[in-house]
Amino acid sequence: MKYDIELSKVPAHIAIIMDGNGRWAKGKFLPRSAGHKAGVETIRKVLKECQRLGVKHLTLYAFSTENWKRPKLEVDTLMNLLSSYLKNETRVLHEHNVRITTIGSVDGLPKNCKSEIDRAYELTKFNTGINLNLALNYGARQDIKNAIIDIVKDTKCGKLDIGNIDEDTIKKYLSTNSIPDPDLIIRTSGEERLSNFLIWEASYSEFYFTDIHWPDFNEEELQKAVYIYQNRDRRFGGLK
Ligand code: FPP
Predict the structure, then answer these.
(1) How far apart are CA 202 and CA 174, in angstroms?
(2) Catalytic site residues?
(3) N or C end of the chain: which has fewer CB within 10 A?
(4) Ligand 1 contacts CB of residue 40 (under 6 A)
């Protein structure tokens, strides 16, 4: 291993904004779809490396609530890549003890994607290895809005006492309720913003930005991000 990573201090949850597929393709005079295809290859590498390092949860921002604004052809490409990825790889992921979950409004995805997601979830739900958590039709503001609606409903019907609502209550109503907040958030391709990803959960996350486009990100780049993370001083607002 090129980077001296302490395996006992690997982030439990890494979340990634996989950016730059389009720019990668443009730089090679290829269609944007080739960039997304190459991006799937990077997902394979990064998932394997996270598994090897002992990361417990890997959340990937695969399709945001804003991505519907892209041309239909590109949206279709992304949906097809998603469904074929799940269709072709769920079995092998299952054999490697990977648990597949999603966050976001998956009911709003095309039927074939939704059925592959349901199948992957059902098959892998009792696995104890890494949790591959795909953010699909996900937007953090929408997730918070949905949580507020549910909290109000439960308060109205007496299931929840307004005086007892605290930060943990809010977490319970978010779609990320069963996973710890991300320790490390990685964004590729030079952009340094959250773009509506995990805005509640990222309060104390460490951020790692790299100029590398997602299709060029690899095992070594992931190690570098983890190494830099391990050398940060996380104080959570307190003192050392
Ligand atoms: C960002 O690049 C990438 C995306 C919006 C989608 C990521 C999706 C995949 C890698 C494939 C499908 C997912 C799975 C889980 C199999 P961009 O298009 O915004 O790049 P640009 O900013 O350079 O144009």
Answers:
(1) 13
(2) 19, 67
(3) C
(4) yes
